[in-house]
Amino acid sequence: MDGFGSKTQQDLDILLCGILNPPEIHQDYYLTISKPMIGINIFIESGKFKMGKVKYYTEEERLEAIRLSKRKYQQKWKESNPEYIKTWREENKEKVLKSTRNYRKVRRVNDPLFKFLENTRNLINGSFKRRECIKPRKTEELLGCSIDEFRTYIISKCPEGVTVENFSRFEYHIDHIVPLASASSTEEIIKLCHYTNLQPLWCSDNLKKSDKT
User: Fold this and answer.
1) What is the pTM of this model?
2) What residues have CB less than 8 Å from 164, skipping those under 6 apart?
3) Nearest-CA neighbor of 10 among 38, 33, 41?
4) In angstroms, rounded to a whole number, what is the distance separating the alpha carbons of residues 9 and 13?
5) How far, rounded to the nearest angstrom, does the alpha carbon of residue 18 sit from its chain's CA centroid?
6) Which residues are within 8 A (CB) of 191 and not within 5 positions of it... i.e. 6 or more apart?
7) Phi and psi at residue 34, to the nearest 5°
């Protein structure tokens, strides 16, 4: 048996419902329609139903599979419609900015690694903005190492027990050992942004230090 072209949409919905959930969740559907098909899956291909072996998943696995499928579809759609997305973003700048801010705010709370990454980028970006200079290179190029390597370096300079997850909770700042105030050119700022000139420092100590070495 390789096709069910005569099945109605209602039959299809019931069959799919049975497939997406274990039999015990939809026993009535399996008894009336799907019981003979336990151990069999149904695939939709060119408007036809085809049979194949089934593997039942947990509810968590099922939902994750649906999320991954949606993400894959959205990504494929974005890649196929770049001009539409560009136009939509230009016409909805405020909405895009608000959505981005909300996303970053929530992720900073729930993802310590992302928070550390953002704080590092803000530190480097601010180093140039405060001196009214344009940041000439990417953050990792200015640091002289990857963000992961920089994180490991900074945490290694902290007391035992401090991790990237609790770095902010311990009220640590990342400080320029030789302060930016000593720089008189973009090239000097670049040198001061190298990871070897950065250190973890208590918030209160950093404020006391100010522009001193």
Assistant:
1) 0.56
2) 112, 113, 116, 151, 155
3) 33
4) 6
5) 33
6) 183, 197
7) -95, -10
Please provide the DSSP assignment of 156-206 as one string: HTSPTT--TTTTTTTTEEEEESS-GGG--SHHHHHHHTSGGGEEEEEHHHH
The two tokens of residue 115 are: 């928070």
Alpha-carbon gap, residue 140 to 121, rounded angstroms: 9
Which residue in this structure is represented by tokens 């909805």?
92
pLDDT in tens, 86-103: 999 899 999 999 999 999
A 10 A CB-CB count for 24 gives 7
Q: Which of 175, 178, 180 is nearest to 202 (CA)?
A: 175
Tokens of 107: 């992720």
Q: Which amino acid is at 203?
A: C
Residue type for position 84? Y
